[in-house]
Amino acid sequence: MTPLTRRRLANFKANRRGFWSFWIFLVLFTVSLGAEFIANDKPLLIEYENHYYWPVFQTYPETTFGGEFETETDYRDPYVRDLIAAKGWMVWPPIPYSYRTINYNLPVPAPAPPSADNWLGTDDQGRDVVARLIYGFRISVLFGLVLTVFSSVIGVAAGAVQGYFGGLTDLLFQRFIEIWQGLPTLFLLIILASVVTPTFWWLLGLLLLFSWTSLVHVVRAEFLRARNLDYVRAAKALGAGDVTIMVRHVLPNAMVATLTFMPFILNGSITTLTALDFLGFGLPPGSPSLGELLAQGKANLQAPWLGLTAFFVLAIMLSLLIFIGEAVRDAFDPRKTIAQMSTALPGEAAAATAARKEAAE
Amino acid sequence: MSLMPPNPDLLSVRGLRVDFRSGAGATQAVKGVSFDIQKGETLALVGESGSGKSVTALSILQLLPYPMAHHPAGSIRFRDTELLGAEERTLRQVRGNRIAMIFQEPMTSLNPLHSIERQINETLFLHKRLSAGAARARTLELLRLVGLPDPEKRLTAYPHELSGGQRQRVMIAMALANEPDLLIADEPTTALDVTIQAQILALLKDLQSRFGMALLLITHDLGVVRKMADRVCVMNQGEIVEQAKVDDLFIRPRHAYTKKLLSAEPRGNPLSPPEDAAEVMAADRLKVHFPIKKGLLRRTVGHIKAVDGVDVAVRRGHTVGVVGESGSGKTTLGLALLRLHASEGAIRFDGTDIQGWQPKRLRGLRREMQIVFQDPYGSLSPRLSVGQIIGEGLGIHGIGDAKEREAMVARALEEVGLPPEARNRYPHEFSGGQRQRIAIARALVLKPKFVVLDEPTSALDMSVQAQIVDLLRDIQARHNLAYLFISHDLRVVRALSSHVMVMKDGKVVEQGPTQRIFEEPREEYTRALLAAALNLEAVESPAVRT
């Protein structure tokens, strides 16, 4: 690890709020990745007639457990439960509902208020809100992450080419981006959503068409600046090719800007997906999504647990990401990093600092 | 204030300390500095970068970035006023009024959005409360005083329309607007060409005697000190190590550091390789023209001739020094020879014309022609280790395997006087001189035949300059290298080059053996350049710009 990286990590840790947000977010995200083991309408493990069964991983027909149908077992059926309990036992996840499990045993018409059975109540179709939240959180974050990574890769590449080659390439590309950004994204998405049935990947592709431009300007500016620096010229004099120079010498500089922006792009991506879901142009019907929960909250004002839950989960998730983003920004802040390095290194570096100070004056 | 004893000196600084807080610790920039300035005298603060001289000067007007900077101890008294920790109101009355300051970089110390008239009027309005008409008259008078040509026309000019020297004149006019008692000049000529430097120094001296003001001159250039100062304070690492009259200092330096500083001038003579050595790099009628485009259709209406028909030949083991002022096309010439810049005219490397070769074809030749840049802070990738930086060329040209490359890098580092362990560290851990050594090692490791040295010493302190010059000469002798040495510093050129080319406006004014050029220059421009560079004399000549 280079001293620079170490210094940055220290800076990241020094921002307590961001540091803790990072860990909380990481734990939440890891937990939600294992959503099938936490909220599911299938048991984790069944012992039946001295055989072990793993319903989470494998489907078993009802006949396995002495039932009558050849179809997949409905483990929530009281009849099946009795069958299994007679000759063995089963272990349920802490929340015995999946995101699409409909609870038919509600004492009141759906949406049902929070109870011991449904911790945060059910939505208007009788589905458990906690289960939908866990799955919804996972899909939101995953969607955001994938979109962020893809748009960063495209954005960095486009910005790099523009900035490095400059001139006509830059001019044409810039005009193209300006026109592209002028397109009314939301309307296009709505129109496209009515032509194709949106799936996770369709939506991702559609949003990617417009989201990649966000990083281009920053990266382009970094490349424009760096391409005239002496060390780039020195690399040319050594005989390095354009790609080598871009990747080895200029990109590391642009990465700082990119990494600083990333948490905020992630935030934006999540918000976009939520907004589309809220409007009903997002993920296919039935998918667990925070936006859909919000829409339900709006439609069922008499059931405030829906709206409040969706609001708090979104607010907390976005705040955590913003705090992390702030910490990342601190970590990459060259003024902070370099100021601290100079105090950390005695001798030679002190002279360099003083020189820098003098130069700054 | 009335309780203080009257101050016999104009300015007295006592036990001044400046600390910079950064992160957890603090850096001591100035550690207890004391000096006085009398009315009308010139005191020079001399030292290398990082010695604390600028910080000292800035603390007089309390212009440091407080509260990042703070003064644990000390006192600064201007006449009977204590400036250290004085109220902002008191300071404002002193700043720009009784004590004025001019800065090193005239490019950035003038506001680019304000006309010259507005910039100078500002101080007049602030301190003298003149009417618009009176201020205009005074501004004109000031501009005439500082010798700005056509002052009436220049009133409405913006900084970018003026040359560096003219901008510095405007800065001086601003500083003089309220006839200050003390003028602090922080490296006033460092950013300027030698001929302009001489003019500005002459102007300062003239104005000083006319107004009887005191001058605090901050500089690293002993030549300027000798020319201008009455007394000298030598600063090193935040302390004044010696204080003396200027004549005494140069004749009988007492402190070891002063002696080191005085002996730091680049010295020694260029090597004398055989006259008939083979030509390594040559160019005939080399031209680099930048088109000037105008109008809606961006039609080319003319050309800026950065390099205009230059013939040059560098032989094995020889150094051709290229001297000239900024904008004369020296650096462009160097870049064009290496085919790093588009040009016209024949470029022969080892007898083969490489003009018009495709970049791919040139790549193989790149290892034989190398370049060392001026700014050692900008020429090393900050995110690569020294080993990676030096080894990059080896990788590109596929020389040796990983182990051999490592050994070559270590050897190159040893050759430039750095420990081989340095390869695992990063550029920011090294001082300017050490970084320049790394840049030289990067060029050397490929065993080139021809190296362009683009002002390799100008960003360095005097004592480091001498070391780098010695190093370059050693390496040249060992490997029989051909150098194209670009510099505006004639002293360095004399120490290294066997042959000198004087450039002006893209053309070669005069060229010949170093000794001949220095001892009997034929052209008027060369004479003016030499007088300005070596004796800091301003020459009134049509060949010299203002």
Automatic annotation (TrEMBL), chain A:
Transmembrane segments: 20-39, 141-165, 185-210, 256-283, 303-325
Record localization: Cell inner membrane; Cell membrane
Gene3D superfamilies: MetI-like
Cell inner membrane keyword on record: yes
A GO cellular-component term linked to this record: plasma membrane
UniProtKB keywords: Cell inner membrane, Cell membrane, Membrane, Transmembrane, Transmembrane helix, Transport
Residue ranges occupied by any ABC transmembrane type-1 domain in the UniProt entry: 137-329
SUPFAM superfamilies: MetI-like (SSF161098)
One annotated GO biological process: transmembrane transport
Keyword Transferase: no
Membrane-topology annotation of the record: Multi-pass membrane protein
NCBIfam families on file: PRK15021.1 (NF011596)
Protein family according to the UniProt entry: Belongs to the binding-protein-dependent transport system permease family.
Identification of the protein by name: ABC transporter permease
Source organism of this protein record: Azospirillum palustre
From TrEMBL, chain B:
Top-level taxon of the source organism: Bacteria
Family the entry assigns: Belongs to the ABC transporter superfamily.
Species annotation: Azospirillum palustre
Upper lineage: Bacteria, Pseudomonadati, Pseudomonadota, Alphaproteobacteria, Rhodospirillales
Every ABC transporter domain range: 13-262, 292-530
Bilayer disposition of the protein: Peripheral membrane protein
SUPFAM superfamilies, alphabetized: P-loop containing nucleoside triphosphate hydrolases
Pfam families per UniProt: ABC_tran, oligo_HPY
Keyword Transport: yes
Entry keyword set: ATP-binding, Nucleotide-binding, Transport
Any one GO cellular component localisation term in the record: plasma membrane
Chief place of localization: membrane
Subcellular location: Cell inner membrane
GO terms, biological process: peptide transport; transmembrane transport
Gene3D superfamilies membership: P-loop containing nucleotide triphosphate hydrolases (3.40.50.300)
Protein name: Microcin ABC transporter ATP-binding protein
Gene Ontology molecular functions: ATP binding; ATP hydrolysis activity
